[in-house]
């Protein structure tokens, strides 16, 4: 069902009409005898019925107008209005709201159990859909938010420890938030809800594998650091030998060059400070 604008006039026009009916009822009852009394009763009832059409609409608030089960339209513009009398009007908030999901335990695409939560920022843009197409649109938003979050979490890995590439939950928060928002918007369009933002607020490995995954990350970091150190050490050794040979500081044969490379590599790569050894004799 699509939202449409309900018929309404300025509320002060309705107030003047009600006052006019009450005044006519008093005049008719005083000066009209029995027929006038009957007319006064009729005018009084019409005035009372007309009063039921008066409605105040606050900013960012809407009212769904129904007449004996039939949808007549919605009042969305703030102000004082007079609409169809004897109608049922249900309020629908158009304000922006936050919904924070509970921490969900799901498996990522690699099967690792993770804990994840998100905050959803939304508002109602179609009061008719929110009121009639779903049973309770607020509860609908809560359930669909958790379903969308589970779907996104199971579609991507928590982290990538190899070179396969692609988005991950940890390293690509903006891209994941965009995908979550798109997925959730598709689910909530039926309820007349617009998703303004969807972003992860909690992401962690589950307790049973957190320690093991931390060790794995530390091992990967150590290997990466070692590779960087070795790469730099090889460059430093190469530069040192080339400079010694270019400036003629010392003549190095293959055996002395190998020994010097070994000593420099040990001094640079070792985690401990190098301990010098004084050679009192000859290398040979």
From TrEMBL:
Short name of any one Pfam family annotated for the protein: Band_7
Ranges of residues in domain Band: 52-217
Superkingdom, natural source: Bacteria
InterPro entries per record: Band_7 (IPR001107), Band_7/SPFH_dom_sf (IPR036013)
Stored SMART domains: PHB
CDD domains in alphabetical order: SPFH_like_u2
Keywords, comma-separated and alphabetical: Membrane, Transmembrane, Transmembrane helix
SUPFAM superfamilies: Band 7/SPFH domain
Transmembrane spans: 7-30, 36-57
PANTHER family xrefs: BAND 7 DOMAIN-CONTAINING PROTEIN (PTHR43446:SF1), MEMBRANE PROTEIN-RELATED (PTHR43446)
Name used for this protein in its record: Membrane protein
Source organism (scientific name): Tumebacillus flagellatus
């Amino acid at each position: 069902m699509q939202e449409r604008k309900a018929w309404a006039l300025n509320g002060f026009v309705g107030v003047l009409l009600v006052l006019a009916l009450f005044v006519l009822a008093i005049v008719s009852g005083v000066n009209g005898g029995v027929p006038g009394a009957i007319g006064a009763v009729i005018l009084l009832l019409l005035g009372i019925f007309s009063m039921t059409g008066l409605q105040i609409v606050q900013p960012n608030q809407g009212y769904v107008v129904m007449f004996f089960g039939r949808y007549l339209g919605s009042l969305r513009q703030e102000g004082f209005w007079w609409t169809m009398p004897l109608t049922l009007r249900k309020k629908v908030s158009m304000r922006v709201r936050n919904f924070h999901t509970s921490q969900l335990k799901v498996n990522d695409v690699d099967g690792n159990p993770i804990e994840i939560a998100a905050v959803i920022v939304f508002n109602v843009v179609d009061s008719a859909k929110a009121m009639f197409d779903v049973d309770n649109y607020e509860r609908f938003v809560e359930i669909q938010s958790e379903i969308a979050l589970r779907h996104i979490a199971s579609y991507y890995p928590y982290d990538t420890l190899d070179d396969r590439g692609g988005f991950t939950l940890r390293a690509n928060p903006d891209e994941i938030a965009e995908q979550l928002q798109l997925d959730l918007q598709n689910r909530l369009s039926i309820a007349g809800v617009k998703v303004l933002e969807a972003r992860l607020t909690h992401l962690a490995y589950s307790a049973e594998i957190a320690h093991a995954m931390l060790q794995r990350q530390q091992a990967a970091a150590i290997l990466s650091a070692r590779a960087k150190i070795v790469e730099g050490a090889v460059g430093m050794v190469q530069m040192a030998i080339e400079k010694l040979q270019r400036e003629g500081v010392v003549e190095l044969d293959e055996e002395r060059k190998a020994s010097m490379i070994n000593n420099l590599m040990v001094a640079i790569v070792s985690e401990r400070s190098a301990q010098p050894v004084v050679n009192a004799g000859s290398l040979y």
